Give the backbone structure.
Amino acid sequence: MTEIDKGTESKILYAAHKVFVNKGFDGARMQEIANEAEINKALLHYYFRSKEKLFEAIFEDAMGKFVPKIFETFASDTDFLKKIEIFVEEYIDLILENPLIPIFILQEINRNPERIVNMIISKGANPQLLQLLIQKEVDSGIIKPIDPRQLFVNILSLCIFPFAGRPLIQGVLFQNNKEEYEKFLVSRKKEVSKFIINAIKNNDHE
Amino acid sequence: MTEIDKGTESKILYAAHKVFVNKGFDGARMQEIANEAEINKALLHYYFRSKEKLFEAIFEDAMGKFVPKIFETFASDTDFLKKIEIFVEEYIDLILENPLIPIFILQEINRNPERIVNMIISKGANPQLLQLLIQKEVDSGIIKPIDPRQLFVNILSLCIFPFAGRPLIQGVLFQNNKEEYEKFLVSRKKEVSKFIINAIKNNDHE
DNA sequence: GTCTATAAATTGATAGAC
DNA sequence: GTCTATCAATTTATAGAC
């Protein structure tokens, strides 16, 4: 806790977040969460019925922070290429503040793929709108012809993967230099949108 | 086993691969591996001392299939842009045959980041060479100025992420239509290299 | 090499006192 | 609400017969 004791339930949620995000559901231990929260293990079951319920609270919260954001930025009515710049910058910033969330989410959706879709839709995701919006840019000739879904997945890939694969890339490309990799990630905020815009901008158009 | 009984050790490795890749180390159970291999649980410990040792055999094998390949393609002496085409096509094909390996590797390197680096180097990865090679292309004006490491990470992101995030993307963008998503992944073999080449090709140059 | 039986340790969950 | 003590089930690993 950064703040001064916000009550037991908050302490539990904070501790559970830390442990689940680091270890995943299968690797997490209720005892470790209790220790982290500086309370007794039995109290976890008093506030949340089971490990599964406690996990769901944490997972839903993580999804809520990372999924709607994707669709919000693109729903604004700025210039499309500008929207990409803003999205990439803000999304990488968001992940920089919670660098373990991507691998946590990827891990858990693969462990239990069924529950995902409804959760996402309920959190306000509107993939159809986003696709139409991209298609409109293609039709008007502002960007080169591309399947909107491919572009969408490309954008997400470029933002998210470097965090999910961090140990690998940091180890191989940066001799495990944490600070250098941090800089590398920060500089991606500009590099990635440059890369995407170069890829799709239609130079014939004016 | 697709082939007719290759001996106990092979049966174990095949079964362990299946279970570990699907469930991860923490989620895997020795009993399930034994069932899958149609042998007794004690026999697992006879052939491999412990769950940890058995896991390492599987993990090393997975790394061996997916890491060296990255550097091999780029070491050939074809035209650089052609190399990107070939790499993207072949690497996506490789993952299509083992679609769960990416999330498996990402999950396990995050669970135990330390052991990674040495393993990769020992498998013949040569990141320095690849960086120099990209830098040469920049210097000669064939591709636009870019940090070689950024380009490298971009290529990997675009190839790997759509598999790691499959349940999410397939669920949201494809209403969970498995066949459609399969087609989408296959068409990425062409789409991704087009995207990358558009992004980096220097049109001023000739 | 392969099996049955079982040990030994871990872990999620509950009972019951305060 | 919070704690101690403990249950019950699971799970890795080993002993020992064949």
About this structure: The CA atoms of residues 12 and 37 of chain B lie 6 Å apart. The mean pLDDT of chain B is 94. The radius of gyration of chain B is 20 Å.
